[in-house]
Specification:
Blueprint lengths: L1 E4 L2 E5 L3 H13 L4 E4 L2 E2 L10 E4 L7 H9 L6 E4 L5 H5 L1 H4 L7 E4 L20 E5 L17 E6 L17 E3 L18 E6 L5 H7 L7 E5 L9 H16 L4 E5 L21 E5 L19 E7 L4 H8 L6 E7 L13 E3 L9 E6 L5 E3 L9 E8 L12 E2 L9 E7 L5 H16 L6 E7 L22
Parallel strand pairs: 3-5, 5-6, 6-7, 7-8, 8-9, 9-10, 10-11, 11-12, 12-13, 13-14, 14-15, 15-16, 16-18, 17-19, 18-20, 19-21, 20-22, 22-23
Antiparallel strand pairs: 1-2, 3-4
Helix pairs in contact: 5-6
Length: 475
Amino acid sequence: MGDTDGATVKTCRVHDVILEFIVSKAVEDNFVTIWNRNGFSDNYSSNKIRRLSIQEDISGQAEEMTKTIKNAAHIRSISIFGNNNSVLGKHASEFLSSQVLRVLNIRGGGVGEFYLGHVKRISQMKYCRLSGRTQELPEDIEKLQHLGTLDIIDTGIRKLPASIIQLQRLVRLRVDWKGQLPDGIGNLQALEELSTIDLGFQSVKFIQGLGDLINLKVLEILWRTVTVVRDVEGHKKACISSLTKLFTRLRQLSVRECPLATFPLMSLCVSTPPPLQRLFLFNWNKSSVVPHQISSLLNLTRLYIGLSGEVSKEGINILASLPILVSLTVRLSNDKEGDSGVFHPRHAINSQGFQCLVKFTFRCWSEAVLEFEPGAMPKLQMLKLQPLPARCQFKYGDGGLVLGLQNLVGLRHVALTINCDAATANEVDSLEDDITGAAGVHHNRPIVQVERWYQGSMAHGCSRRPSGYPTLEAP
């Protein structure tokens, strides 16, 4: 079973028997040596380890640890998964003694403090991903001249060494959003991906250099009105200047907490449509307004936009006008605390626009009603409704919160999350029955997955059910 974004498979799960076969073949061909609580895999030979995968807690296996460390010079790849491997942190320098090491991949929060140590011993490394309580990177990290990927987003590292700008082959750099990067980022001319940086923590000189990254294709930023710099106006101008330059090159842009008047996308008027294909606007201005300039992004295939309050018909039309949009996520949050008591009109999707849309995610944290008119979203296959407030099920008349599922002629899959907060059992059951009933008479008989979700006290008669979509906040 896979999870798809439009036509792209993002995850895939294989049958346990197939997984066992894949692992056995990998072991048989010495593609990987596995080390878990049962010891080493059958192909273990101290002088043949090339790719080592540590999958569970092995802290009690001191003898095997000693053997492995003594023969670490042969290891080209080290991957560590799971928790409670704090002993590995203590022996990091021994593990990193291989001069042929190319890949270091540490996943899991229990590795403890892991330090790269003397980088000259691992100067051939191309990929480095760390997680856990890594405190800092070595000051002489510039010796890793073959490094193409550096991912320290889950380490808590707050400041990167100045020498990092000398990594001429660095293509992907992922850091903690609170991290401060050194000036001279423009020297990293090979850089194609940079995430996630809070512009408010960066110097004006760094921001200016950002605009010189001519090969940058993926950028994820936070841009809040609060900044630690003294020259706020100069900082703002530098941000606008650099982001305007980058906007003509980027393929993917993610922005969180962007101030209304300064985001360059909203002021650009370009004669040629920008190459941007994916755009994520989180917590967009705490506004219900869909920026009209989005309609100029003719190459956009995926859009996530977070709004507050009621979306106008004009806003829906702007989104519908994007000619090749494949995946759309709209997140609606409360514009005020509590219920306003104002009747909200239905968000009506008609036959105009959304001609290529395959996946539509509607994340509703406020009162909203959705209606699909005949001919709407003709290619839509996946519909995610997360989490619809069941307390509003009877507030807007017959049909409940979603109308017209039968008009989505290409529908194959519906993922429904019901928000049970402040709802009665009758409201919850009615909402679920409406969706499953409409799917049941649909000519495609789409698969329906339902989860009942609550934040506070569970409503009477409301129970949780297994679901493949438990996470509500990921784009």
